[in-house]
Amino acid sequence: MNLADCGTQLATLVDRTVIASPEKTPLSTAARTILIMARAYTKDGNTFLTTGDLVNALAGYYYGFGWLHFGWAYGLLVKPETALDCCPFKGTCERLPAIYAPKLAEKTSRYARLLETARTSVLPAADPATSMHDFSCRILAIAGCYAMQGTIYQKAGASEDALACYSYGHGWLDAAVRSGLFCIAGERQLFTV
To answer: pTM score, two decimals?
Structure first.
């Protein structure tokens, strides 16, 4: 998917997503935060795109998708009907011009390390006998799957797809931490709390 389409798709989905919980409840507060963060990463991606920073645009958009998809999966947000055919991972990412190769390689490697560190820095906050614990474990598995897929892409030389995977997986994890599903037991600065 090309970056402009990725940003447009994310912005459209964020705008059409609604909060599922009643106003003035802790869940509606969490849902509002998820939407605010997804909008912020959309805006960041757009700013990077228009200023020619394609590497950070890619990372920003996919991070925003991670936040949004977490909100849908957790039930904080209602997924719009148009979301059924809108997956940022359909096909491969747009290949960036060669002038971006050094920055792309550095950021991809750094985001791989950040995601791995983030995964090992959290513990499920809920009791193991609860469904929230099970969901926390599912989020760790999702982050792990995207870390693994990112590594596969990175080894194959598809750095754009690798960066998208690392950013997306970290977005899921960050949103879950912000929503209270995890305790931070390690590198606190990796999360927006």
So the answer is: 0.96
Q: What is the span of the domain harbouring residue 47?
A: 3-190
- Cross-strand bridge partners of residue 182: 124
How far, in Å, CA of 154 to CA of 164, rounded? 11
The contacts found for 41-48 with CB under 8 angstroms, 24 or more apart, are 41/10, 41/67, 41/171, 42/7, 42/10, 42/11, 42/14, 45/3, 45/6, 45/7, 45/10, 46/7, 46/11
pLDDT (0 to 100) of residue 135: 97
At residue 19, does pLDDT exceed 70? yes
Residue 2 per-residue DSSP state: -
Q: What is the dihedral of CA 116, 41, 7, 82, to 10 degrees?
A: 90
CA geometry: angle 176, 123, 89, nearest 5 deg: 40
**At residue 21, does pLDDT exceed 80?**
yes
Helix (H, G, I), strand (E, B) or coil at 3: helix
Residue 88 pLDDT exceeds 70:
yes
Neighbours of 29 (CB within 10 A): 15
- Tell me how many domains the chain contains: 1
